[in-house]
Design brief:
Layout lengths: L7 H20 L6 H13 L2 E2 H8 L3 H13 L3 E5 L7 E5 L1 H9 L2 H10 L4 H23 L1 H7 L8
Antiparallel strand pairs: 1-3, 2-3
Helix pairs in contact: 7-8
Length: 159
Amino acid sequence: MPAVDALVCFALYAANRTTTQAYRVLLDPFGLTYPQYIALVTLWADGEQTVKSLGEALQLDSGTLSPMLSRMEAAGYVTRTRSTDDERVVGIALTERGTALREELAHVPRCIAAGAGFTDAEAARDLIDALHRLTDAMKSLRDHPDTVLDAVGAPRPRA
């Protein structure tokens, strides 16, 4: 067994990479990428919103989000509209075609769940909850590394 197989970080990396590849197989026939798909899912569930709020929901910066939304607009899935009150604010909404994709892509979550071996919604929910706890913990480590370094007695670089 390779040494990396014993690392949590590598197991997460491998699972994420393989899951993204599985989504690619399912979404390529529709000309969509995974980030475009999650943008559509967010708009289907939450409705029209600002580009800023969509970026926050998807954890994407504007440098990634803007070109992606531009491609989605060119494909006829969304419209972007500048606010008349504040031209810095851009709204994003689904078009009729973007709304219709919801039905066409309804099989995708079922395929992912089946491929992951989930036998019921509770199994999926348990994994999602565990991953949310992990994400929150890693954000805490990212934002407050000294707390964790002190807790584990990690050495500090010499100045």
